[in-house]
Task: structure prediction
Amino acid sequence: MDDIVVQVLIMLVQVVVLVLAISTGFAYLTLFERRLLARMQNRVGPNRAGPGGFLQPAADAVKLFFKEDVIPTLVDRGVYLLAPALAVIPALLIWAVIPFGCLNIAGDYQACFADPATNPNLHNIFQLADIDIGVLYLLAITSIGVYGITLAGWASNSKYAMLGGIRASAQLISYELALSSAVLAAVMMAGTLSTHEVIYQQMTMWFVIPQLLGFVLFLISGTAELVRAPFDLVEAEQELTSGYNAEYGSMKFALFFMSEYIKMIAISAIAVTLYLGGWNAPGLELLGSLMTGMAGPLVGSIAVGLASFLVFLVKVVLILFLFVWMRASWPRVRYDKLMYMGWKWLLPLALLNVAMTAVFVVVLPDALIHSVALFVASLVVMAVAYVVSSRVKPAPSRSRIKMVQPEVPRRPSS
Result:
């Protein structure tokens, strides 16, 4: 009974710390993005609130918290108030199965690097729940994030918000297929759905090498799932004023804003877990051995835990940098081109990647040989796709409507 109480208390502390850390990370990700965009676009960026603009997220939070909370008269009040929660809760639930480090509270750092199937002594405090279907859980949670956006557009009783919600449902469902197929190829390489075991299978080689095509497809599809530029058609201000959140203000708008950036961090963490070796890096095991020999097993376990967390954090920041760089570099695409790319290019390439992975893993049982073969095949496929796409001409317009300039009546001559 006492062990159950202790486990429950540890889990509650993990949940509270995790939620606070994610909330703080979301706030300062906005500052990171604004300063980075300003640097890329030769601007100054926020630099007034606090030293170097460090307190800008706090100023934004205070502003949104004290803004007037206006609810339009004709909205569906229940769904209107529920939609922001439906957007932000799945973004928080994603983190339950992601290992963002390895700190074994049992005091044995070697358990982090041992085969999970034969070593039950790992109690990683940096992972909330290590379940056997962790990757499937991630796909399930990410797929229900569309409900918050769609219901927000529908409940607002506004044409612009409704169009944004419809766009969101079509876009997220379309790109979910390519994203799931890219994840499936990584799962086939690992042979497991456990996120911890996926990281263990990358101890010798990160999956970004054999699954280079899958990694690129995951980043593109993930950007579309986040409805970020250049795929932010659901909130295109030139067409929909603000899209699905046009009728939201104050903290309800802040919840939608919060869900987007938390999902951005989560997608980056999933990419690190599936393709970049997770928290693992060369030298961590050596660090644990040295610290254990100098100060004992507990210090060695703590050193490995903190170092693995820093490694994971650096990798996530690099992926976040790619997302911000993409936003600064690419203009918003047209909606029909967005859907065309998702169905005609990304999904076929993702299915081809799954087929290549299955064939090479079965035909070439040696891990090194089929990894190199998949890397070469990924380069060839991406080169062919680039050449073919650059030569494809846009279809001619079928519209028969002609714009006719009205005739201006001439003045009678005097």
